[in-house]
Amino acid sequence: MNQSVLSVALFSGATAALAMLLALPLAVAVGWLLARRSFRGKPLLETVVMLPLVLPPVAIGLLLLQVLGRDRPLGRLFDAAGVEVVFTWKAVVLAMAVMSLPLMVLTIRAGIEQVDRRYEAMAATLGAGPFRVFSTITLPLARGSVLAGSLLGFARALGEFGATIVVAGGIPGQTQTLAVAIFNLTEAGREADASVLMFVSVAVAFAVLATANALLRKGRT
Amino acid sequence: MIALAFDLTVGQGEFSLQVRDDAEVQVLGLAGPSGAGKTTLLEALAGLRAATGTIRVGGRTLLDTAAGLDVPARHRRVGYVPQDALLFPHLTVRGNLEYGARDRQRVDAVAEMLEVANLLDRPTAGLSGGERQRVALGRALAAAPDLLLLDEPLGALDPARRDRILPYVLRARQALGVAMVWVTHDVQELRHAADRALVIDRGRVVHAGGVDGAVALLTARPGY
Fold this sequence. Notes:
The complex is a heterodimer.
Chain A lengths: L1 H35 L5 H13 L2 H11 L5 H8 L8 H26 L2 H9 L4 H12 L1 H16 L3 H7 L9 H10 L3 H30 L1
Chain B lengths: L1 E9 L6 E9 L1 E5 L6 H9 L5 E6 L2 E5 L4 E2 L7 E4 L11 H6 L5 H10 L15 H14 L4 E5 L7 H18 L2 E5 L3 H7 L2 E6 L2 E6 L1 H10 L4
Parallel strand pairs in B: 3-9, 3-10, 7-8, 8-9
Antiparallel strand pairs in B: 1-2, 1-4, 4-5, 5-6, 10-11
Helix pairs in contact in B: 3-4, 4-5
């Protein structure tokens, strides 16, 4: 059991980290857009990005399954490249990334909104273009929120269940994450084993949330 | 001396700013009561606030709305030193000075001139008010602007420190020959630094011309 606990924990940690890294550039870009730009379709973008937060995760899983189906453009594209996504670890990462995105966008957007715009204006008078202003002023000044958002995204990915099980199946040894393993073990009546995994989840989530909160507090001072 | 000409309208309705001036200046002193629109005018000159009309600095047109021209702030070569310095808090003094600098030599020269060379590797958090203003002035000067906007650069300092900073600004004017628009309430500063003065009140020009006329106006109306 110890061996399998470790491998499930490592698999979950690795896929959650990859999901967080996959979602991060998009979360930063969308967070910045929502914090700093006015454009047509902004309310629509806000709504679409937040959908995974309110939709049943199983519905998101089903949506991903349909988008990635072999008769759909994206599915065909992966198929043509010889990349199998559905029911592999890649589907786990994708499901986790989609589910983590809203929390990351919310945190990063709030962080960017807290950056005094006058610093950005100052940088512009010193000759900096929009990308330089963003990369050398806005992003470094919002770094606490970006880190906190990443950690929250990681924690959310670690707890992901509904979307993952639909799009990746929860196959032991292949796509089984902590959350899925807890469910499978409970279903099989192995509550003691499930409890071990539950404690691992609680410990990791506690550490991650405490760090994220500390970062956010630091960002506010 | 630089030819500085602007004819600007900023905003509309309750508060609007309508100012114009056209002269050869080294330092244009800008005075007026709180809420007169001094900072608004500086922001419009720097390209940080939408305005209609024209701005010409030394033969370069920065704004001509009739012709559809509006040079963005980053291309205006107009430096800005706000009252609260606004040093980038995540960069060292050197990082701030080098941010918009054309070359390293200019950074060193400016740091030397403003006597901040010994602070270069310090974070900005621990600097005194006077040091912060000198670094903010240096940061703007290192970018080699055609025009420097000073928004009450000494306003946040107590009178004793103010007397110690003023010579640095005057030295910068002397050594680098940068033209300036200098917002001040202080008659002494105006006398020391400016060769022309603009006094505005509630968004309108009430005096444009000699410093003596502005000083007389400021002395007669203490609210200014």
